[in-house]
């Protein structure tokens, strides 16, 4: 930056530019208990200074008695008392008594009542001085600075103009080259050092059937930082993408196919460096279509370039399909369509290939099977997991399920069907205290035989075998196949059920007072087909095939007092079978 000195005559008529300030009674001596305040402010572009030429004030520890205090806008400058010579004042006090540009100085003097001898006081000379803003490195003029009384002004070299901030010198390097199909764009000042603080914009625009081709020629030299960051930068922007920023001494790859008939070349610089810049030659060629028509698809045929009029078949990738609501002769199937390259470099028509959606898994409503995440994502490759509603069930297949490419949920091992929740059978919350022994037995506790059901109207029993079915003796339900039987579970010694059947207790009150009690109703009764039905006890000679199944009207809510028993497998020990059927023969025992 170069400094100029320009003379302007400011008009400062509102206040004097110099004068005196002194203590009351100076030089004869100031009185006791006096207070005196003084303030002056410098006009714009000036500073105010104060020069003490005499100081004689009662001395005291830290000037607690009599004192003259001088401060600026920034804070206190001095607290003075005692006696100082002019030389002492000039060397240690006066240099600091200066305001900031356009700032103020304040002086305050007060005395107390304890003066035993006369002190003459103080006298000072104030003056306003012009500030040399051009000497200040913070004035921000980028080329020339001219100082005048009360201010400064920035100037520029020929070929530059002063920007709107009145400090930055820049060049006019924004050019609209619309319509030009061949030409050259260079940095301002090429091949010499480019201009500082430049914000250049070169606009190119041609027919929409053409694309601009840019080629870097000659030296490429744009200021770069030590770590590779661009201090000055070159960018090329089209409506669909941005190239750059570029800097350093390695030019971008040429030729650069913009793929667009419109481009803007942006070049920005700071105030440092002596780099030479760039030269770009631009021309046009016919637009080509991109190698991708729509995402998640592939083209047939595969060509290095697709030009105006080229036809391709677009096939969605595995796991993707077209929106079935789309219609048109170009759609060949739910995964394939035909598209043509247009003169403007775009494909038409274009249909999106979207991920196949398996939809929400068909989990039976009100069943024990549940999704771990009740609101899962359901598109291609998404995964889900299942769980059972409580510990009284277990999954028959505990593995992840994935949405496959055909839109079906499939397990990790390849099963196409959803898992099932099977009831956990033959296990109680507490260990059963007595097993397979009746003689000399003891009373069962609640929850020790959780599969036991009581059929009140038939004075019989049944065993729960899962959350929908129970097994009983055929003679217990013989003749009641078309009836709706009421059963009770989750009880011992008829607790709760007796009140419903004999005392008129409402079921909801009985359930409230007897935790675990369940009231169940039959929907269907199936008696073994080889059982002899319709015989009275006195005429029955055989109880072969004396077994029946009872289906419940609704799913049984399992809990610690209501759980299914395990049915014996074909190869299991007969003792299991005997244990399981003890409850089914209650009526038979009653008859004897």
Automatic annotation (TrEMBL):
Chain residues that bind Ca(2+) 2: 130-131, 133, 147-148, 151
Domain CUB: residue ranges: 1-129, 173-285
Domain Peptidase S1 residue range list: 438-592
GO process terms (BP): complement activation, classical pathway; innate immune response; zymogen activation
InterPro entries, alphabetized: CUB_dom, EGF, EGF-like_Ca-bd_dom, EGF-type_Asp/Asn_hydroxyl_site, EGF_Ca-bd_CS, NOTCH1_EGF-like, Pept_S1A_C1r/C1S/mannan-bd, Peptidase_S1_PA
Disulfide bonds: 63-81, 134-145, 141-154, 156-169, 173-200, 230-247, 289-341, 316-353, 358-403, 388-421
One MF annotation (Gene Ontology) recorded for this entry: serine-type endopeptidase activity
Protein name: Uncharacterized protein
Organism field: Megalops atlanticus (Tarpon)
